[in-house]
Amino acid sequence: xxxxxxxxxxxxxxxxxxxxxxxxxxxxxxxxxxxxxxxxxxxxxxxxxxxxxxxxxxxxxxxxxxxxxxxxxxxxxxxxxxxxxxxxxxxxxxxxxxxxxxxxxxxxxxxxxxxxxxxxxxxxxxxxxxxxxxxxxxxxxxxxxxxxxxxxxxxxxxxxxxxxxxxxxxxxxxxxxxxxxxxxxxxxxxxxxxxxxxxxxxxxxxxxxxxxxxxxxxxxxxxxxxxxxxxxxxxxxxx
Amino acid sequence: xxxxxxxxxxxxxxxxxxxxxxxxxxxxxxxxxxxxxxxxxxxxxxxxxxxxxxxxxxxxxxxxxxxxxxxxxxxxxxxxxxxxxxxxxxxxxxxxxxxxxxxxxxxxxxxxxxxxxxxxxxxxxxxxxxxxxxxxxxxxxxxxxxxxxxxxxxxxxxxxxxxxxxxxxxxxxxxxxxxxxxxxxxxxxxxxxxxxxxxxxxxxxxxxxxxxxxxxxxxxxxxxxxxxxxxxxxxxxxx
Lengths: 239, 239
Description:
Chain A is an alpha/beta fold. In chain A, 29% of the residues lie in helices and 28% in strands.
């Protein structure tokens, strides 16, 4: 039996009822043609699914009664943050979708010297929609948090808070992934440059933040391939 | 100094000269505006780059003199074959590009019960172009070989020749990647289903071919994410 999931905001829940409106209600009633009595799942950015039954429908809203809560096991246990040199925005779409599926917690795009794009501000709504759809697809209820682009130096300042910082360094990366000690690392950051890569000065600055220079092998990976490959290694091996 | 690489066929080489024509010559002379005296690299599907100097140009061809050969270190040492349940073709484009970058040797699309598409025949030229461009991008000279789609049972018959067959089994995959013993495995196959997955019968048939059922974790990955993630793990950890 199908049971699609729908994204709500916490404020849509009052007592044991959820009021579904807007696009999600459109999708439920017009596209998927759910009707009163049907069962669906709802989630907002937290740890569980709300199993619901549709109790009434109007043109603009569906009222769902909460039957039970289910702790979502698909949510990541480790926290992976990708610091991504701002790429062309279609690549950022792609990275956002794939990292959500893979279980990353956060993407912080940053602007370095060789970035063509300088901000992703007007794309935030689109990116957040990609996150929600990827969550529905892969079955997680905690959203990936994608921030608007920060400056390179701001990014450096954020690295302190992580247990380990992995720097995909195609210039002089020395360590191999298999040599990394990730035991008991719960809060992991990876840094991937944009299409243009980094200036030597930027490479040195990153290294000086205790980042581990990692080689991704003999082939030069596109920035989006690099981000997805590294996230795959971390999440599939640790989570 | 820039040194772009161009794709040739073996027959373009006569003595120590290469005749570059067609699209590659268009790209060299019209797009990148290389001129007589400039140096470029050429490759066909083998182990090395041919470092050349342009000695003459006509409207339809450029004649390149071979200066030296360079063994291409970016070519994969292990052989990874992806057996991919035929997905929507834009996804196959994407998988083809990423697996070429990651160093896979071969992609064999197969048609199983839940595949929407039934063949990729009319797309071979397009797919091979994607392979060549990805090779140029990542710096390998040995092409990824993508075959036209085979039937599910034909695919099963091909599995014998591999040292290990890894089956991305979201239904009842039990082993984790970290539990796999890949030591001394040089010829590796991975099997990834299409968007629709497999019938129970198909799952059993694959298992009966000594395939190791691998779980890719708690989240359901799209077929293209699954293929790229698994290929990343194998290539970045082994090659």
